[in-house]
Write a structure and sequence with these properties.
By secondary structure, the chain is mostly beta strands. Helix content is 0%, strand content 45%.
Length: 171
């Protein structure tokens, strides 16, 4: 049974129970079976059913590390040491910051009722959502009470969620 093979081209292969688990190549490293675990970099999938957990401060040994996803050296997503997420920025100033070179567009795509909910702890403070009607309708809630509705006819109803609201504006 082979445990280690050193090849003439400089590559190295590691085996366990006659199965290759690790291989170095001229372009990098290949793990061919099992879970991945890198201790000091804390990249691991150990018995996690395919999930990947990345800890940049394993055992408290490192601080102020960031996580980035890059393409050709250009950062596209950054998570800083405080857990703030930046898309299009490497120094997010809030829990989520989206920055674009022209339009910074956020799309909420749902098959029924897309919603943007504002909460303080577990209390809903407000909500902007669509009713999912064929032509669409946009509603604005304060707390859990609807306060304004815009429909496809340009009708803005303030005050309640009926067509007999306190104020109607047609645009």
């Amino acid at each position: 049974e082979a445990y280690l093979t050193c090849n003439e081209n400089g590559s190295v292969e590691l085996y366990h129970n006659n199965a290759k688990k690790f291989e170095t190549t001229s372009t990098g490293v290949s793990i061919t079976a099992g879970d991945l675990f890198i201790h000091n970099g804390s990249l691991s999938t150990i018995q996690s059913n395919g999930s990947l957990y990345l800890d940049l401060n394993i055992n408290g040994l490192f601080s102020n590390r960031i996580f980035q996803i890059q393409h050709n050296g250009t950062p596209h997503l950054t998570i800083d040491a405080n857990g703030e997420v930046g898309i299009g920025t490497t120094s997010p100033s809030a829990k989520l910051e989206v920055k674009g070179d022209g339009d910074a567009i956020i799309v909420i795509n749902d098959t029924d009722n897309p919603q943007l909910i504002f909460k303080e702890s577990s209390t809903t403070k407000g909500k902007i959502y669509s009713t999912g009607q064929a032509l669409g309708e946009l509603l604005f809630d304060i707390g859990t009470t609807n306060r304004m509705r815009l429909n496809s006819n340009g009708l803005s109803i303030l005050g309640d969620n009926t067509d007999q609201g306190l104020l109607k504006l047609y645009c």
